[in-house]
């Protein structure tokens, strides 16, 4: 992961997922988790972008 991806994963998790995977179910899951709570969104963004 690049430094930009790490920073975006912390600050704006859906944006980091969008930049890596585009529009799709992964982005929708990231948005939902971020709306439920910031921490689940961050964890999901790190998990998805580290694969």
UniProtKB/TrEMBL annotation:
Pfam families given in the database record: Pmp3
The cellular component terms of Gene Ontology attached to this UniProt record, alphabetical and capped at eight, are:
membrane
Chief place of localization: membrane
The domain of life is: Bacteria
Residue ranges of the TM segments: 27-48
Localisation per UniProt entry: Membrane
Q: Could you tell me what this protein is called?
A: YqaE/Pmp3 family membrane protein
